[in-house]
Amino acid sequence: MTETTPLITSPEHSVEGFVREFLRELNFTQGTVLERATTNDAYLALARTVRHYLMSRWIETTVDHYRAQPKAVAYLSAEYLLGRQLDNALLAADLEEIAAEGLASLGLDLAELRDAEVEPGLGNGGLGRLAACFVDSLATMSVPAIGYGIRYEYGIFRQRFAGGRQVEEPDTWLAGGAPWEFAHPEHAVTVGFGGHTEKYTGDDGVERSRWVPGWQVLGVPYNYMVPGYRNGRVNTLRLWSARATHAFDLQIFNEGDYVDAVRSRTFAENISKVLYPEDSTPQGKELRLQQQYFFVACSIRDFVDQLLPAGFDLRRLPERIVFQLNDTHPVVAIPELMRVLVDDEGFGWDEAWDVTRRCFAYTCHTLLPEALEVWSVELMGRLLPRHLEIIYRINEEFLAQVRERSGGDELLVRRMSIIAEHPQRAVRMAFLATVAATRVNGVAELHSQLLRDKVLADFAQLWPEKFTNVTNGVTPRRFVRLANPGLSGLITEAIGDGWVTDLDRLRELEPLADDAEFRRRFREVKAANKGRLVDVLRRRDGIEVDPGTMLDVMVKRLHEYKRQLLKLLHVVTLYDRITAGEVSVDDVPARTVVFGAKAAPGYVMAKEIIALINHVGAVVNAHPDVSTVLRVAFPANYDVTVAETLIPAADLSEQISLAGKEASGTGNMKFALNGALTIGTDDGANVEIRRLVGDDNFFLFGLTEPEASAIAEAGYRPSSYYEENPGLRRALDLVASGAFSDGDRGAFEPVVANLLAEDRFMVLADYQAYLDAQARVEAAYADPDAWSRSAVLNVARSGFFSSDRSMRDYLDRVWHARPLPG
Ligand code: GL7
């Protein structure tokens, strides 16, 4: 890190300046001329041009942080689901119009170049997208912050359907060139794995332990700009890529087998090769633990070496940094910092623990027990032997404290132990995080309460002050300003553009809900957004959507707890009633049900559900009568880019998880902010959405969390609902009859059988309530004026769900850090 700012000038902020810079990039970096440039050439030149406008801000921000040495936030996340970068960079640099005009003057179309960008899909779903929203807000709020993660060579798989079934293909997002990243091999960090520990007596006469790793890899940082919205700040996202060390090579080369030596490099490089595609259900694979340790070890080393001045007294580390643990994936950073302080820096144990404790805060993102990561002691000991020793010692001291406080309650001690004994000895990463962190937070009010009352209840008893809530949020820049230019224009015309960085100001729209002209224009925007979606789905998927229908949208990962099956049973029931002649097509509003969902490749039931949706969709869409009022659209490969056109077009947002299972949800917020009405359970952030938008503007249904828990405790019998509800029985029988599988009765038997026998997420228990709520939706939709009034109120009252607000909450309740002025 240099103390002097290099002299640089940004390109001129004008159409001419832009065109000059663009052509220079095309000629000198792409090595081509306008007449011969491919779309990808032009896209790459454009991306680099935009980058240049942000570069001086980036350097200034970095230098400012280094000079001021403020308390900084290091966000540690194994996932960042970034979405496309170009538009966001154009917006931040205030270049949208200049770029469009400049490109047009060269005969190029900005929209076409935009489509050449392959989004970096370095995350699975909500958790990864949340991290991307948070770094955006931190930059926009001038908070000194750095995001650390992994530069996966293959991001989330690309989904295709074959015969209605999901097929996964590798995501080669780097293939066309990666204009947004900056490799810094000169700042590579070495990370050890495996080997053993040994005891030795230090100079101070104290017996110590040290780690002798069995092998090492290099972590090469790739920096990404995280531009704030027009505030002159650009923060950094630093993603690590694994390389073989030279030593690693040499040793094998010297053994004489050149070909084998080259081949074995891939062993090291495998670490950052691919994103694990499991969402909420970790697999406990060795490579995944390698990934986790790899990126946190690199990040801690990097922060200490690159971002602190030489000779910094690490006793003061908590004044300079808070490491925010995004779920349990980075939790091995805790024993790693202990190892650095005790083994490398010669701290005493207590002193190191005091520093470490104050440097970490932990966010839990789940309520599903199977999503809480545990690592077998066997694996941890083999891959990270020194860390296992450290974890044991942390646990020993912690349990001594529990014993003392509880008067030796051994049952409690066993329950709280960081080391689980059954079904195998394993490290409970959530417990380790909770013991070490200064703060533990859930991601919505209900979730935080359930963490305190259930999942981490013993810990909350011991340390009530540790626990807090920070409700999730989404960035209004990407998900309103960019994704919904029509609505943005309408809002800005009404209340000015301050809402983009102060989303609470949407409240000022409230009176306009009663203004017929405003509502008319609001409907016009929605119609235009539907038109845009129709074009995209036609081009991208060959799917025809009628923009005159109600767009009923359920997009999120495919998971049983999210209950795509409940939505599908509604579709099947409508189909059944119409084909049976019980309902006339004249009596139901025409709707298009849109699904978007990827299933983890090894999650068999989720993949069956995808196939079933596609099969039901095919039959429904082919039926001459039914298809006049009901159609199913399931575009493959739902991603951030699709979300950006789908969400602004939606009328109805489906947020129908079983209460007590969805920690927060963030899609729910994006829909409300874009003027869709929610049909939802009392779960996750739905609770807060409903409270804010009002009962009249939200379709609530279903069991509450206490009700669902009570039923589960009393012994849930799904078949009783089947027996007692004729509509439900008919729907399930129809699926089982082969009506959607060319008469093949066996095709979806496992799905139906599972619902009847187990139905872990109580689809059948909530079926009738859901249908009743859908009837209320139909009635409300029949009055377009009243519907759009509710939609406007949803927008006006959802400002709370800005990730800027989430950041303020973290700053106040968790980080105790401040934005940097200027
Ligand atoms: C999740 C939760 O399931 C989701 O409800 C939440 O909104 C998100 C961000 O906090 O985190 N937890 C999790 O493991 N994944 C999520 O999306 C994958």
Automatic annotation (TrEMBL):
Family per similarity comment: Belongs to the glycogen phosphorylase family.
N-terminal signal peptide: none
Matches recorded under NCBIfam families: P_ylase
Cofactor: pyridoxal 5'-phosphate
Taxonomic superkingdom: Bacteria
Protein name as catalogued: Alpha-1,4 glucan phosphorylase
Family annotation (PROSITE patterns): PHOSPHORYLASE
Keyword hit for Secreted: no
Organism: Isoptericola cucumis
Gene name per UniProt: glgP1
